[in-house]
Structure formats: structure tokens, C-alpha cells
Amino acid sequence: MANPWFLKGHTACAGCGCTIAIDEMLKAVGPDVVVVNATGCMEIVSSMYPSCNWNVPYLHSLFENVPAVASGVSRAFKALGKKGVVLGFSGDGGAYDIGFGALSGAMERNEDMMFVIYDNEAYMNTGVQRSGATPFHAATTTSPQEVAGKREWKKDMSFIAAAHRIPYVATANIGFPVDFKNKLKKAKEKKGFRLVTVYANCPIGWRHDSALTIDIAKKAVESGMWHLFEIEDGAFKRTYRPKQFIPLEEYLKPQGRFKHLTPDMVKEAQEHVNKTVAELDRLEGCKVDFKYLE
Amino acid sequence: MRKIIEGSIAVAHVVARCGVQVVAAYPITPSTHVPEELSRIQPEYGFEFIPVESEHSALSAIVGASVAGARTFTATASQGLALMNEVLHNASGMRLPLVMVVGNRALSAPLNIWNDWQDGISSRDTGWIQLYCKNNQEVIDTVIQAYKIAETISFPVMVGMDGFYLTHEITTIDLPEKEEISAFLPPFKPKQSLDVEKPLAFGTYMNPQYYMDAKAQQQKDMLAAAKTIEAVAAEFGKAFGRKQAALVEEYQSSDAERVIVTMGSLSENVEIAVDELRAKGERVGLVRIKCFRPFPAEALAKALGGKKAAVMEKDASYGYEGALATELKAALKTDVLGIVCGLGGRDVKLGDVKKVFEMLSRGEKGTVWL
Ligand SMILES: Cc1ncc(C[n+]2csc(CCOP(=O)(O)OP(=O)(O)O)c2C)c(N)n1
Ligand code: SF4
Ligand SMILES: [Mg+2]
């Protein structure tokens, strides 16, 4: 279905999950949104002068300053009485790493905006370098297989965000478009800072068949590598939990970035995933009053 | 209304009276009093105040606010201005009419909170108009003009205000009323802005076939900005009854044999030295650069042609000489005596200024660190 707010003709690679995220996002929240986009793959493939695929007001400033720029837009709209929901849009590198201070500041001030992080788990635009969102073991050009991939676990953005006491934090996945759209629609109706982090493949960086994008995205959730939840005013709830998780190996196998994993490493990763699932099961239905956790 | 007031506090009030709509700022000595006062008077004026978590974000936030169509403001100094650097380029490249006051201060290391111009001079090539003021009346008048200049030609303007010497000086200032200012400065009407009724894209990537054209246009317009700066100063002078310096200001220089060129509050010291030496019959003068960018090469050549000139500056381009000296030599197509002084707030005394005039009589050349 054609998207009137994100026009065709972008230059992303075949099977890019991130443009799917944009497509789903704008279908859910268009047209009365104002997008502030970070430098990164999605900016480059969608807004190279003189063409532009965004059929909503669109501003690109720099890599790490989207939360601050969007704060300014949001406050100006308030001061001028202008209509429109401000929507910050950034890659994982822009949000988890270099723009983390700006993001934390905007969340702490509870600026009135939606913020969507498309998480392709590395710096793709500069050639697949590791980010704070790169998962354990994954090979990137700065965590190569020569050193057995990334040595650190993925930074947990959602819980860090929730500790800022913002009204809405959610995770989503392009393989679950209805869930993603529901969360965006819910976020759009709220006031204050609303963060949605969406899993979005990069077949180039992850080295998988471009036809497998949605299949792999689904397997991320079915295996427990990615979780679909929301934290609404501190209350944690999963929006989907597989009854039976598939073996992690089924998720890792089709991706070149995990090719170097030995059976021991797979086992280690599987154990980690099992523990994460157990931890989230324990949290199910819990409400943390972050207000009192100073 | 004439008032005894601290420079920074006066800046906050004049910005509010200019009808600013969004302010974002981060504290740093010696410009901190500006955002403090703005946050205090915010409820009275109704503008948005964003207490951001860094200077990088302060400038980024007003970039966003400006593209959204608001009149904006921020103030910073030193490390703050350095931290803003990539956003400075971004704002001027997007041709945003931002106004920022810089409480000029030294850069670390060694850490130092006192006045010099290294922060502003190091931001020389960022595409911002840079105006340096000699006293707080001029700071106030220049802030008002800065909005008019910025919004007329779509350029960001930096107003230099010497740290402590001006930011903390308490003096009598004629602080124009809101009504007087709005008669001179109409509401900000951006040619285009973020608007859901009319979706436009801002700040997009440009490949080589377009990028250089955009930059050439920026350069052409920046050079032409001198005319606007002069016109706005003249208009301001008429409207407020105070004569304004635009690009350069000459003091006793027309018949002078020896002239000191400088900027900022140091100019007032030089004026005193000139008066004292003139009283003894020495033909000395001062040429003050108010507008550092665009660089007023022509005006300087006219003011200094055939005279012995020394430049006193509170900055250095490490590995060469003072930045002003280099520029002045190029503008005059002749040698000048370079004096690097006052770094990190080292006092430049009346005697130092007189010494420079003596060095000029002796025909000294090169660069001297006072
Ligand atoms: C200050 C700064 N440092 C580095 C870069 C180079 N750079 C541009 S995009 C990018 C990575 C973007 O990663 P991410 O945010 O994850 O987006 P992706 O490209 O993966 O979609 C980097 C490092 C930059 N533009 N600005
Ligand atoms: S490199 Fe990856 S993220 Fe970037 S456009 Fe290609 S597939 Fe998408
Ligand atoms: Mg990325």
C-alpha cells in the first residue's frame, strides 16, 4: 500500500528493515507530525537534495542532537501555538551513544515529543561499526570476528529511559507491524516524552539474505533476543510473549555477523537469553514508581 | 529608561523586550547571569525557556526552534562556544537568524575563567556574523540590531561581550522599552518554517554538484552583509538617538600618524591613552573593529592608509601570530606591529597601551607578547 507521508523512491538497500520502520511509523502517525531526523542511514537514503521522501515537515540538523533540536521545535510550536506532534527519529548510534546526553536531558525535562529509535544494532551509515546497541558476540567492523565479536552486552535503553520517569516507553519490531502501530498511536495521544525503540534489520551489516528481513525480525522475538513490551507510567507489560521460545540458534544462523560463534558461545548466549526471559517474566505486571527511586 | 544595571542582566532584559520566543542555555562563567535572569523573568514575558544539559544542546535547541519559526536566543562563553562548534556551522549553513551573546573568555588548558577572545576568534570560520562591543550600552544596542540584521539577511549573529569587564560591569545603561524596540524590530516572520499545512524539508544532505553552490551563496551573502550591518546601525541611530558603530569606529585617527587597532572593551583603555598622549601633542589614534566577520577590509584600509599601525589582540593563532594581525596585514597590504595581550584576563594597563604607541614610533615590527 502506497504511503502518502513517506513517498517511494528512497535509496535504501534491498530488504532494509529501517525504511520498513519509517513506512509503518508514518502510516500510524501521519500526517500531522513534524519529523526531526538524525544523521545516519535513514537520513541519507531518504533526503538527499534535491529529492526527499518525507511528505511531512522534516528537519535534519546533526547526528547527536535530535533530542535537543526536537526540544526546540516542540517549545517553539508551543510558544507559537502551532499544530503538530514533534517526532524525533534517530538510529541506535545517535541515541544510545553519541546523543545519549541530549536524549537523557530531553527525557529528564520530559519534553513533549515522540521519539523513535530505529535499532539496527550498529553504525551502518559509516560501514557497520559497533554501537552500544550491538548485541553480545555480533561481529562488526570495530568488533570483528578476529576478537570474537562484541564483548559487551547490549545497553538496555528502555529501562534507562523508564528511570527518567517519562510517561511511555515501548519496544517494537518491524516483524510485528500491528503491535508497532498500536504503540505509536498510543504514544501519539500522550503528552511528555514518549520513547519507542523499534528493532529494524540491516541486511548489509548483519549479512543476511535481503529476502529474510521480516523472517529474521520475527525470529528475534520468537527466540527471546528481542522483547515486545511497554512501560506505561512505570508499569511493565509485555505486549507479546511467545508461549514457546524457539532455540536462539535459529535466529543466529542466517546472519553472517554471528557466523564465527562456536557452540560454546551459542550456549553462553542462549543462557543469557533464558535469564533475560526469566527476569522479564518476574517483572510482568510490576509497576515501579521511579519517582521514589532517587 | 536609564538604569544602573549589570551588563548580563541588561542583556537578559533587552532580549526579552526584543520579543524572544524560545531561549535555551547552559551555564558557564562569565555568561551565566544572562540565562539566570532570563529564567527569572520568563513568566513575565511568556517565552519558552529550555534549561538544556549542554551548550551543544542549547544551540541545537534554538536551531530547532528557529526552523519552527520562533525568535530565539542563547548565551555562552569559552568552553561552551567550543562545544557548540559543529552546531555553529550547521546553523549558519541553514541560514538561521539566531542571536547569541558570547561573554568572551579564555579556553582551557590551563583552565581559566577570565577574559580574552580566543573563543570567538576560534569560531571565526563558522559563518556567523561577529560583532564585538566596547561597552554595555553598545552591547544592548547591538543585541537589538543583531535581530534585525539576522532576520533581514538570514544569518546568525554573535555579539561579543568581554567576560567580566562587561558581563559583570555595573554601569548606567539606557535600556529601551519594549514598545520602542518593537517599533524598530518587527515580529519575526520566517520565509519558511516547519508547518504541517505545508511540509518542507530542512537541512538535507547535498552532494558536490550542489554543496559548493550553497556555500558560494553563503559567502556572497556574508560579504554583502556589511551593507546591511551599516544600514541597520544607521537606522538604529536615528530611531534611538545614539550614534552607532557599524563595521569600524575611528577615534582621533583621521590626522593620526600612529594608530592602535583593537576590539572590544580594550578600546576604551586605548581611548584614554589617546586622550592623554594627544594632550601632550602626540598624533595618535584608535581604530576599533566592531564587526570582525564579515571582515571590514575596505573600511580598515581607508581608515589606516599611510599610518603606522599596531594591532592589540587577546587571541593567538598558535604556530603563527595573532589572528587579527594576519587579517589586518592582508587588508592593508603592509606590515603592522602585532601585540598579543590580555590572555586569560591578564590586565592590559594604560601604560601598556602607551608603550605600544612608543614601539610604533620606534618602528618596531613582528609580534610581541605583552
Ligand atoms: C559528530 C559526528 N561523529 C561522527 C559522524 C559520522 N557518522 C554519521 S552517521 C554515523 C553512524 C550512524 O549510526 P546510527 O545512528 O546507528 O544510524 P544508522 O546509520 O545505523 O542507521 C556516524 C558515526 C557524524 N556525522 N557526526
Ligand atoms: S546499510 Fe543497512 S540500514 Fe543502511 S540502508 Fe542499507 S540495509 Fe538499510
Ligand atoms: Mg544503527
Topology, element by element:
The complex is a heterodimer of chains A (294) and B (370).
Chain A lengths: L16 H13 L3 E5 L3 H6 L11 E3 L5 H15 L4 E7 H7 L1 H9 L4 E7 L37 H6 L5 E6 L3 H13 L3 E7 L3 H4 L6 H11 L4 E5 L2 E6 L7 H5 L10 H21 L11
Parallel strand pairs in A: 1-2, 1-3, 3-4, 4-6, 5-6
Antiparallel strand pairs in A: 5-7, 7-8
Chain B lengths: L1 E5 H11 L4 E3 L8 H13 L2 E3 L4 H13 L4 E5 L1 H6 L1 H9 L5 E6 L13 H5 L6 E4 L3 H18 L3 E6 L7 E5 L3 H7 L16 E2 L5 H33 L7 E4 L6 E5 L3 H14 L4 E6 L1 E3 L3 H8 L3 E6 L9 H10 L4 E4 L9 H12 L5 E3 L1
Parallel strand pairs in B: 2-3, 2-4, 4-5, 5-7, 6-7, 11-12, 11-14, 14-15, 15-16
Antiparallel strand pairs in B: 1-8, 6-13, 10-12
Helix pairs in contact in B: 1-2, 1-7, 3-5, 7-9, 10-13, 11-12
CATH class of chain A reads: Alpha Beta
**Count of discrete domains of chain A:** 1
Overall morphology of chain A: globular
Q: What is the architecture of the largest domain in chain B at the second tier of CATH?
A: 3-Layer(aba) Sandwich
List keywords for this structure.
heterodimer; A: 294 residues; alpha/beta; Rossmann fold; 8-stranded mixed beta sheet; 11 helices; globular; B: 370 residues; 2 domains; 7-stranded mixed beta sheet; 6-stranded mixed beta sheet; 13 helices; 16 strands; binds thiamine diphosphate; binds iron/sulfur cluster; binds magnesium ion
Outline of the structure:
The complex is a heterodimer of chains A (294) and B (370). By secondary structure, chain A is an alpha/beta fold. Helices cover 37% and strands 16% of the residues of chain A.
Description:
The complex is a heterodimer of chains A (294) and B (370). Chain A has eleven helices and eight strands. Chain A has a single domain (17-285), classed as Rossmann fold (3-Layer(aba) Sandwich). The termini of chain A are far apart. In chain A, helix 1 (17-29) crosses helix 7 (177-189), helix 3 (66-80) packs parallel to helix 5 and helix 4 (92-98) packs across helix 5. With 294 residues, chain A is of the alpha/beta class. The longest helix of chain A has 21 residues, at 263-283. An eight-stranded mixed sheet of chain A has the order 2-1-3-4-6-5-7-8, sandwiched between helices. With 370 residues, chain B is α/β, with parallel strands linked by helices. Chain B has two domains: 2-240, Rossmann fold; 249-369, Rossmann fold (3-Layer(aba) Sandwich). In chain B, 43% of the residues lie in helices and 19% in strands. Chain B is built from 13 helices and 16 strands. Chain B has helices spanning 7-17, 33-45, 55-67, 78-83, 85-93, 118-122, 136-153, 178-184, 208-240, 266-279, 297-304, 323-332, 350-361; strands at 2-6, 22-24, 48-50, 72-76, 99-104, 129-132, 157-162, 170-174, 201-202, 248-251, 258-262, 284-289, 291-293, 308-313, 337-340, 367-369. In chain B, the strands form three sheets. Chain B has a seven-stranded mixed sheet, sandwiched between helices. In chain B, strand 14, helix 12 (323-332) and strand 15 form a beta-alpha-beta unit. In chain B, helix 1 (7-17) runs parallel beside helix 7 (136-153), helix 7 packs across helix 9 and helix 11 crosses helix 12. The model of chain B has no long low-confidence stretch (mean pLDDT 98). Chain A binds chain B through residues 31-34, 36, 43-44, 47-50, 52, 54-62, 64-65, 67-80, 82-84, 101-102, 104-105, 108-109, and chain B through 21-22, 24, 46-48, 50-54, 56-58, 60-70, 72, 86-87, 90, 94, 194-196, 198-207, 210. Magnesium ion binds at residues 91-93, 120, 122-124, 131 of chain A.
